[in-house]
Design brief:
Helix content is about 35%, strand content about 15%. It is an alpha/beta fold. It has two domains: about 120 residues, NAD(P)-binding Rossmann-like Domain (Rossmann fold); about 180 residues, Rossmann fold. Helix 11 links the parallel strand 10 and strand 11. It binds (2R)-2,3-dihydroxypropanoic acid. The site of (2R)-2,3-dihydroxypropanoic acid (DGY) has 6 residues, from loops.
Length: about 325
């Protein structure tokens, strides 16, 4: 019997592609070319499965151009690149990579918060530019992390990881806002108190966004929300571009309506709003919150395992939808 055909849409660890070759007839992309939607569709025309990253859009148009496609395994926990309704209607299964990146991503969220509040990159640029000629009492004076109030919007696994780091490691008071309230046990574990979004924005010294991107969460933070925040507050986005209105944020940062921001994700990335590139009080990183070698390997392996389990007939390990009939 011939092996199922799969496409690995972006470059990933070569040994994991080799592992996939033991099960599938694989077309991969070792040069990591960014295909247009039309090029992707042409490659998927004869494929049974695909391993995607967050940068390939799977929608109704692509699904109709790929009539054999049965499963899309995303190498990311977020899957806003999938039109899940279109996939479910077409009988196509989607999978993601939860859990394996939780702690790494929470570490990064905390690192970005610290770098932002303590003005680490801004001061490093100053030093590298040869501008450091004397010490002064207020040079790059930022805001404290320990003992301050941490507000987390989106209290899934990663949000809970950040809450625990803040509460247990830094003695922070943690408040959170989420679609649904956590159980009393989880709230106690995270030492976190549920509050409304407006109260969180008004009271937090540091706001961290870890909410999934959907049409409902688009511009969770815009000009009106930024206006509620303390002028001394920091805002960190490790969720997705589009959760923050980047243009409104650039204005708020330039006018010092909030003190600083740390951004790992951007609207329209990898293009970054030009105004964010010129304001000094923002730390910018290129969507690397889950980027440690062990975690990226674990994500790629889980995406591969999802494809293998699906075609073995065992069912996917971490599905994001449940079509009633599969293609
Ligand atoms: C994720 O897993 O969703 C990360 O943002 C990497 O894309």
């Amino acid at each position: 019997m011939s092996k199922p055909r799969i496409l690995v849409a972006r470059a990933i660890f070569p040994d994991i592609v080799d592992r996939l070759r033991q099960h599938f007839d694989v077309e991969d992309n070792p040069d990591d070319v960014i295909w247009t939607p039309q090029e992707l569709a042409a490659r998927l025309a004869d494929k049974d499965g695909v391993l995607t990253t967050g940068s390939q859009r799977i929608d109704a148009a692509l699904l109709s151009a790929a009539p054999r496609l049965k499963v899309c395994a995303n190498m990311a926990v977020g899957y806003n690149n999938f039109d899940v309704d279109a996939m479910t209607a077409a009988g196509v299964l989607g999978t993601n990579t939860p859990d394996v990146l939780t702690e790494t991503t929470a570490d990064f969220g905390f690192a970005l918060l610290m770098a932002t509040a303590r003005r680490m990159t801004e001061s490093e640029h100053y030093l590298r530019a040869g501008k450091w000629t004397k010490w002064s009492y207020d040079m790059f004076a930022g805001s404290d992390i320990h003992g301050s109030t941490l507000g987390i919007i989106g209290m899934g696994r990663i949000g809970q990881g950040i809450a625990k780091r803040g509460a247990h490691g830094f003695g922070m008071k943690v408040v959170y806002h989420n679609r649904s309230r956590l159980s009393a046990d989880l709230e106690a574990e995270c030492k976190a108190t549920y509050v409304g979004k407006e109260e969180l924005l008004r009271t937090a010294d540091h706001v961290v966004l870890v909410v999934p991107y959907t049409s409902a969460s688009h511009h969770t933070i815009g000009a009106a929300e930024l206006a509620l925040m303390k002028p001394t507050a920091t805002l960190v986005n490790i969720a997705r571009g589009g959760i923050v209105d980047d243009a409104a944020l650039a204005v708020a940062l330039r006018e010092r309506r909030i003190a600083a921001a740390g951004l790992d994700v951007f609207e329209g990335e990898p293009i970054v709003h030009p105004d964010l590139l010129t304001v000094p009080n923002v730390v910018l990183t290129p969507h690397i919150a889950s980027a440690t070698v062990p975690t990226r390997r674990a994500m790629a392996n889980l995406a591969a395992d999802n494809l293998i389990a699906f075609f073995d007939g065992r069912g996917p390990l971490t599905p994001v939808n449940q079509p009633s009939t599969l293609r």
